[in-house]
Predict the 3D structure of the following.
Amino acid sequence: MENISINELKNHFDEEVVVSGFVDNIRNLQWVQFVILRDNTAKVQVTIEKSEDANKEMVELIETLPLESTVKITGKLVDSPKVKLNGMEIIPTNIEVTSKSSEELPFNFKDLEGVNLDTRLDYRFIDLRNDKNLFMFQVQSTLVRFMREYLYNNNFTEIHTPKFIGAASESGADVFEVKYFDRVAYLAQSPQFYKQMAMASGFNKIFEVAPCFRAENSNTSRHATEFTSFDVEFSYINSYEDVMNLEAEMLAYALEKTNELYGEKIKEVFGVELVVPKLPFPSMKLADIYKELEERYGYKVDEAEKTDLTTEAERLCYKLSQEKFGHEYLFVTDFPAEKRAFYHMRDAEGHLMGYDLIWRGTEITTGAQREHRYEEIVKNAKEKGLDEDVKFYLEFFKYGCPPHGGFAIGVDRLTMLLLGIPSVKETQFLFRGPNRLNP
């Protein structure tokens, strides 16, 4: 017989079933033993009557079995309305111990209140057994699935680009060097160059979900040296507004679908409302934002800082968007080109033809129309002093390349904001930062 997930047991009343999981709890009473079995979907009660001779071996086994051991249980599933745990129980005929927990747990993963985060990350394999953490990754997986689904429904192709690259991605300052046989290679900051190569190859619509690496000594709640990026690129656009519209539609679709599955449970477990955004998303120019932030909230910064959004300006954008537009999201446009990558297209005034997307006070996306004209992108690269470093990349545009654009979303940061988690350290399966390389 095949194992049945605990959340599927309701379809198998009065049948012999096989379930496997962790021993979550044991109540060893005078006449009966109650074993709570846990897998990643739910919990179920297993009831062993001590008075029955056939149960003698199972009773003796359970009396010495440590919690968090794993077992495989065969038995009959019965409907038991008096059982508080889902109104069912398994009457076992056989219990097989598949692994024994040999040491006391370093902390109580069922109650993480007061447990140091570094300790939790040191024992992440224990920390992730927490029901809330397991559910968090179910939500993350579901959200990514529906973003993928939207793109597949719109004829996008998923690609997989290399993470070893022969030249520093953009400036060389924020990349990891690695020894690559007899030469130096770098870990990719993003798949940007290869996404654009796909456009030059005629792929038209592509996306990738993959790790990116940033050698930034940033010890904040939203940065990591390795993170999962959801990258999208597509051709034959008329302007960067096409990119904004597609991203807004994708997010609205994925959040609506995720809300249908998990909205109520997210509210119950995390205490936050999953808000499905309305289309279109509002948009404001960078200069207009600073003007309104000063008028509404008295927030002033030096002119030199107005070339980008400060951390505090990002935070206030959430409040501004809600008050001005009744919306959680805000596209910010008209950044000066000197603050952005050389491959972003510029208008006649030198403004970037791109945007940032701010959600709940944090930037989740940088997107743009890309420069696809060979002479212009060569000129831009020279201005940044990168023409030799990115020579291989510039080759993509010599032989014709359609107008195109795209964006990237950090999956870990998106999860953090969606569920109200304090830090990406908790929303990454295993966090990598300047001071953490293990486990």
Remarks:
- The chain has two domains: 6-99, 127-427.
- The first strand starts at residue 16 and ends at 28.
